[in-house]
């Protein structure tokens, strides 16, 4: 039989693919995070920061930054043999808000990256996901020189529901980013389970 032997081999697992957004304020490290974990060469849409944008592009804390995302970042990570995440990094600047609705279509969950030196920059992302009931985790990108706060302080400052995971991370570090992504997926799955099986009283 022509295909006899190969048909006895273990069938490759068809992985579940999930879409995760990576959001947060301007220059908080979204593009860096996607690039750190992606197993494919990440798609980037970077443009050079221009003199014209200087009054609105606040570079405090990220003075070395020379480019900004104008559409999205895209990357992929296999969390398990049967679970692949597609990562969509959003543009950080307010003038690109109109892209968010498009990018968030079909997303399982989101990472909101935060920088404790300018925590208010992530308020808009937190509001966006809360309003649309998209599960998210907050990841504090620990830049050198930024004060370290316990996760409880960040949770309180952002007025988050207690079940929203808050983690400290380094957006440049693959294992650290992986932990954040696992937290988002677990949180989203747990919430989906709760919705499917409402508590019986
Ligand atoms: N020290 C330090 N620098 C970082 C870290 N993450 C990002 N950076 C730097 O901070 C700057 C901003 O990073 P990006 O990844 O471009 O930020 P972004 O959120 O994609 O920015 P926009 O798309 O413009 O909103 C870059 O110069 C990075 O090299 C970090 O964890 N620590
Ligand atoms: Mg970016």
From TrEMBL:
InterPro entries: Gliding_Motility_GTPase, Gpn, P-loop_NTPase. The keyword 4Fe-4S does not apply. Coiled coil: none annotated. Pfam families: ATP_bind_1. It comes from the Bacteria. Keywords: ATP-binding, GTP-binding, Hydrolase, Nucleotide-binding. GO terms for molecular function: ATP binding; GTP binding; hydrolase activity. Belongs to the GPN-loop GTPase family. PANTHER family: ATP/GTP-BINDING PROTEIN-RELATED, GLIDING MOTILITY PROTEIN MGLA. This is ATP-binding protein. The lineage of its organism: Bacteria, Bacillati, Actinomycetota, Actinomycetes, Kitasatosporales.
């Amino acid at each position: 039989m022509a295909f006899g032997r190969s048909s006895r081999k273990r069938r490759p697992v068809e992985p579940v693919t999930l879409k995760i957004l990576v959001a947060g304020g301007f220059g908080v490290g979204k593009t860096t995070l996607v690039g750190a974990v992606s197993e494919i060469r990440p798609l980037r849409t970077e443009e050079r920061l221009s003199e014209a944008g200087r009054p609105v592009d606040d570079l405090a804390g990220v003075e070395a930054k020379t480019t900004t995302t104008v559409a999205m970042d895209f990357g992929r990570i296999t969390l398990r043999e049967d679970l692949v995440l597609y990562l969509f990094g959003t543009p950080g600047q307010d003038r690109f808000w109109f892209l968010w609705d498009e990018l968030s279509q079909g997303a399982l969950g989101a990472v909101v990256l935060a920088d404790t030196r300018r925590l208010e920059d992530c308020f808009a992302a937190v509001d966006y996901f809360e309003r649309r009931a998209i599960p998210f985790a907050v990841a504090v990108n620990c830049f050198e020189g930024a004060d370290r706060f316990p996760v409880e302080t960040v949770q309180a400052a952002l007025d988050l529901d207690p079940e929203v995971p808050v983690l400290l991370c380094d957006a440049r570090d693959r294992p650290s980013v992986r932990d954040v992504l696992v937290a988002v997926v677990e949180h989203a799955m747990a919430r989906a389970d709760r919705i499917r099986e409402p508590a019986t009283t």
